[in-house]
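fwd from M.: "can u put these together and see what the complex looks like"

so here's what she sent:
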Amino acid sequence: MKTIHIFILFIIVAVAQIAVPAQMIFNRESILNSGMAYKFKTEPVDPTDPFKGKYIILNYELDHIKMTNNNWQRNQEIYVSITNDSLGFAKATSVSIEQPELGSFVSAKVEWYSERDSILRFTLPFNEFYMDEYKAYDAEVAHRDAQRDSLPNNTYALVYVKEGEAVLDNVFINDIPIAKFVEQ
Amino acid sequence: MNSKLINELSDLVNNDIISQEVASKIEEYYHSKQQNTPNKLFTVFGVLGSLLVGLGIILILAHNWDDFARTTKTIFAFLPLVIGQCFVAFSILKRKSNTWKEASGTFLFFAIGSSIALVSQIYNIPGNLSTYVLTWIVLSLPLVYLLKSNSVAILNIICITYYAFEVGYGFATFNQAPWLYLVLIALLIPHYLQLLKHKNTSNITSIFNWLFPLSFTIVLGAFVDHLSELGFLMYLLLFSLFYNLGKTPLFENQKLRRNGYLIFGSLGIVIMILTMSFDSFWYLEQFFLNAQESYVSIVLFITNLGLLAYLYSKRWIKGFNVFQHLFILFTILYIFGLNIPVFGTIIVNLIVLALGITTIKIGADKFHFGILNYGLLIITALVVCRFFDTNMSFVIRGLLFVSVGLGFFFTNYIMLKKQKSKVESLKTNS
């Protein structure tokens, strides 16, 4: 093959190499700009990813719903319709396999279904929040301390939601961004 | 090695083995040969440098610099990628040497990984490791062919194997067979074939000769779903395939240490079969025909059979070698013998013995002390295994050990003697 042909092919590959992360960015930016913001009550725990660094895993309080229908499979993709409760935090209104046409909803995965008390447990996908490597563990500790001295649960995640896709924007303890809270 | 030979030349001339004229001719030949080959060391260091810089960048970015604004971080995500692409574009356009291509390709490979990782980090994009590695592979694999880069190919094999490992054995994706692995590894085969065709004896090819069987050996287990007993058969068939591949002239005519297939195959077969020589192994469950494992086994068996038939049709098989035909006997045994422990155990023990003797014979024929003693080791291993699970009296066991020990002495001694007489006969002839 001639050099120029190889070069043209390389340009195509290079464009793809840039396009993939760029597309990831545009997708998220559009959700952040035009999506609805919801607050999800949560608890942080910190693990590590070899490539992406330290992050905190968010265990959401919103992880179950009462359902009479018992036909669920583990890891099944579902849509959870959400709305704000009286305190301004997100709560689940219903769960469906088909994408709902109205209202805000997020995609989630089925954990398990308890026949006894007819509760469906699921995991929300936006449960990783990346932090400065020195702050991730402190964040977990800070949450634990904040838990002790004030309201029952004052840690929440701010999530932007648009057409079933969600972007985790920030995590707050007592309405202060977690990274700032840790520094204090 | 060449320099060693050149150092010896003066000694040879002094002792009147060769004339001064011949010595200078030899020296000239090696010098001209050296000038024609590019500096390999330079390439190795170039690749090593890019590898370390690339990994370093990933680590630095993984710190999570949350003092920077989102835009600044995004620019940092693309910076290494664009720099890497510029280097690669430069080495393609200017037709730079291999050193350039390998080094820039390696750097770009890591830049791709770091940019996806950083973007996921900035936007808190969740996702398991396997999807991340898969994106990385897909974006970097074309570089193998555009740059004809061996280092990128090696990195890709590692990533692909890692991907299959994550999918197959990982916690997140429980019990999934990594079928995509087959497609990805097949995409690298053309590069490997090119190497085998044009650079058959070079060191880089022998690295691939080891990496491919290693990768297959690691990944095959991921295709075992719940019929773990068939897993043994699958691995035996795979090792048999390696062995027969290693017996094709393409690999057989090379040095043994370059023939990863043969060594992997031989060691694998022996280990598998020794495991099965235990009595308890054969008290096993049933055999299901329509399971993923059965299909994989059938495909492996047919490939084995095809390869063996090909070897025969090309007349590449000289004399009967148990290793090469073992899989047929074994598959039959496996299907029919699973619930007849006595039958299975006895035959398998005989097979191990036959393998040991075959190996000793190959070693003796080739005058290779390594292979000869490997054969003896197989028999020793068999005896040691039987030491644990038979009700033989201690006297018989003791005698067995003594006889195998004596076997070591005598076979080596006879070989040494033979070798000496051969050297002497050479001397008298000349």
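replying to her w this: Residues 235-430 of chain B form one domain.
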